[in-house]
Amino acid sequence: MNERDRNVVSPGVPAIDDATASDAPLLAELAARTFFEAFAADNDPEDMRRHLEKAYTAENHLAEIHNPAIDTLLVRIDGGAPVAYAQLRAGPVGDGVPPEGSIELWRFYVDKPWHGRGLAQVLMEAAKARARRRGATRLWLGVWQRNARAQVFYGKHGFRKVGAQIFVVGSDPQTDDVLLCELN
User: Fold this and answer.
1) Which candidate, 159, 53, 87, places its Cα nearest to that of 176?
2) Residue 20 DSSP label
3) Helices then strands, each counted (H, E), the chain
4) Which residues contact 73 (CB under 8 A, 6 or more apart)?
5) Which letter does DSSP use for residue 12 in this model?
């Protein structure tokens, strides 16, 4: 497989749409699974369990879907279950982020079988487009300092470090880099 073929999303056609109330249970399952896959190996199992139980319930996701400050974008292949999602959240900004015109890329996850197939690129472009539609001129996020893969991905998409913040997993406070991207 050459480089060009590897960057094509296949098989199937990806569609990105807004999550609805009926998506909450599937989104909760996808969110918990992708978070676990990304971070379980580097975290205490009890802290991971506590975090997943607190953050990724169907009730929480239903509330997020209904919250006008949050946009939840789902990626489906050929109309199936979601395989990736992104959430944008309007509100307070992180360290080093100008409050005017900034919106947070709060969550951004792709199911492991879809890593390296170009789906994250498609989702990032959709997230940026949604941020612009909401009137944002900047997109910011927090990414764990130890998540090298994500750091590289975000760097390729124009994000640069502007600060740091604490993110608690269970009872473990961890340092996230705060990254900022100017939207064109």
Assistant:
1) 159
2) -
3) 6, 7
4) 16, 17, 18, 19, 85, 86, 87, 88, 123, 126, 127, 130
5) S
Q: What is the mean pLDDT of the chain?
A: 93
Report how many domains make up the chain: 1
Q: What is this structure's pTM?
A: 0.91
Kindly state whether residue 59 falls inside one of the protein's structural domains.
yes
pLDDT digits (tens, 9 = 90+) for 57-104: 999 999 999 999 999 999 999 889 999 999 999 999 999 999 999 999
**Tokens, residue 72:** 């939840």
Q: What is the CATH number of the domain that holds 102?
A: 3.40.630.30
How buried is 68 (Cβ within 10 angstroms: 0-12 exposed, 13-18 middle, 19+ buried)?
A: exposed
Q: Which of 3, 77, 72 has the alpha carbon at shortest distance from 31? A: 72
Residue 19 near residue 73 (C-beta atoms within 8 A): yes
How far apart, in whole angstroms, are the C-alpha atoms of residue 94 and residue 104? 9
